[in-house]
């Protein structure tokens, strides 16, 4: 049996039953060498060779075969150049690496982020991505873009109508350099400046929320039969899940933690799911019926079980049903966010009640009362 540290030297993959690599199938051709290229469960595609001429052992962390091969070739090019960090490489090169990452974001969002980065570089520097180096992505870049769009004067205390637009553009462009992606960039040879995402934001004008018939919506939701639509809407309303999280959610994501049931949202590469921020979270589930429904289902089932094309249904089904309750055009762009906002309002109110109860208990203790009722009724000016 081959030891764990021994590396393959033939054109057969020892880790996967010895299947033939084949010409270009499971290998990367580089400078006349055919370097073994194989998929590690839960880790992504890897290149590995102990060739005296060019020893290499590198995991791309990417599950898409074509994208992983591009990332592997990028790494090999960097290694041939002497292993130098690619701070002098262009943003066009880094963007190509970004598109190959498995956990960056949805494809449409990634393309939007790149479009905004391109606009930032054109406005702030007068250059295209291929002419801007990675080391130039610093706080000054974002400030210069904002200043140019504001007519040359940057005032962080002013609440201009355009500030929301500028913040949105910078937020999208800078997300390409967020900390959760930097380990992957580093493996590919890119060194992103530590302060690349240090940004001072402009003050925004807040728009008042439009009215939403919550009681009418709730009656309509309760009248729906249990099925994909009811569960999808319920997970947005009572767990605050994003659309991609609802789409990827499986029954076993439901967990009991500190006396409360909730959905654990985290990277699950074995299921092909990566969360937006890369940071795990526990979303408390505020609906007993949904908890009971999920508990009655097999753990590996989809929470929203659908026959056929899931992505297409999620892009249309819940949104179309919600638009009858959300009439405003601006909110209707992301109708599920209205339910998510409703959920967050409830979480905030619940947290405020707990804080008030803790403050009342502390006041009662300070007064030497055995009951908080005495403190509330006879001593406090503020209603708790």
Describe the structure.
The chain is an alpha+beta fold and 384 residues long. The chain folds into three domains: 14-80, no CATH class; 91-187, no CATH class; 214-345. The protein is built from 14 helices and seven strands. The protein has a four-stranded antiparallel beta sheet, covered by helices on one side. A three-stranded antiparallel beta sheet has the order 5-6-7, covered by helices on one side. Helix 3 crosses helix 4 (139-149), helix 3 (107-125) packs across helix 5 (163-174) and helix 8 runs parallel beside helix 13 (335-367).
Short description:
The strands form 2 sheets. Strands 1-2-3-4 form a 4-stranded antiparallel sheet, with helices on one face. The chain is 44% helix and 9% strand.
Strand content: 5-15%
Query: How many DSSP-defined strands?
Result: 7
The radius of gyration over CA amounts to 26 Å
Distance between the termini: 70 Å
- The coarse silhouette is globular
Element pattern in H and E:
EEEEHHHHHHHHHEEEHHHHH
SS-based structural class?
alpha+beta
Estimate the helix proportion, in percent.
Answer: 40-55%
Strand order within the widest beta sheet: 1-2-3-4
Low-confidence residue ranges = 1-25, 83-87, 328-333
Overall tally of domains: 3
Largest sheet: 4 strands, antiparallel
Count of alpha/pi helices: 14
Overall average residue pLDDT: 79
């Amino acid at each position: 049996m081959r030891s764990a540290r021994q590396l393959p030297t033939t054109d057969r993959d020892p880790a996967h039953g010895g299947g033939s690599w084949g010409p270009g199938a499971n290998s990367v051709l580089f400078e006349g060498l055919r370097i073994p290229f194989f998929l590690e469960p839960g880790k992504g595609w890897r290149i590995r060779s102990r060739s005296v001429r060019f020893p290499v052992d590198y995991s791309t962390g990417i599950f898409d075969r074509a994208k992983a091969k591009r990332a592997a070739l990028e790494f090999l090019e960097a290694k041939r150049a002497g292993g130098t960090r690619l701070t002098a490489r262009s943003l066009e090169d880094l963007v190509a690496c970004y598109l190959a990452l498995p956990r960056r974001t949805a494809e449409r969002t990634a393309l939007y982020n790149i479009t905004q980065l391109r606009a930032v570089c054109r406005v702030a520097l007068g250059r295209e991505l291929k002419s801007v180096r990675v080391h130039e992505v610093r706080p000054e870049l974002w400030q210069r873009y904002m200043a140019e769009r504001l007519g040359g004067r940057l005032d962080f205390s002013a609440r201009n109508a355009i500030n929301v637009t500028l913040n949105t553009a910078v937020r999208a462009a800078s997300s390409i350099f967020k900390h959760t992606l930097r380990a992957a960039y580093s493996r590919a040879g890119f060194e992103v400046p530590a302060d690349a995402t240090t940004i001072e934001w402009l003050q925004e004008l807040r728009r008042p929320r439009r009215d939403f018939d919550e009681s009418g919506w709730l009656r309509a939701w309760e009248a729906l039969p249990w099925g994909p639509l009811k569960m999808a809407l319920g997970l947005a309303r009572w767990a605050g899940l994003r659309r991609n999280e609802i789409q990827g959610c499986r029954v076993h994501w439901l967990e009991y933690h500190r006396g409360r049931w909730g959905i654990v949202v985290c990277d699950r590469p074995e299921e092909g799911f990566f969360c937006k921020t890369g940071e795990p979270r526990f979303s408390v589930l505020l609906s007993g019926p949904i908890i009971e429904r999920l508990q009655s289902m097999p753990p590996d089932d989809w929470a929203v079980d659908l026959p056929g094309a899931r992505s297409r249904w999620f892009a249309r089904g819940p949104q179309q049903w919600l638009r009858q309750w959300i009439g405003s055009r601006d909110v209707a762009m992301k109708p599920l966010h209205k339910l998510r906002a409703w959920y967050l309002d409830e979480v905030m109110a619940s947290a405020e009640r707990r804080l008030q109860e803790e403050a009342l208990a502390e006041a009662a203790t300070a007064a030497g009362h055995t009951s908080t009722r005495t403190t509330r009724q006879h001593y406090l000016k503020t209603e708790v």
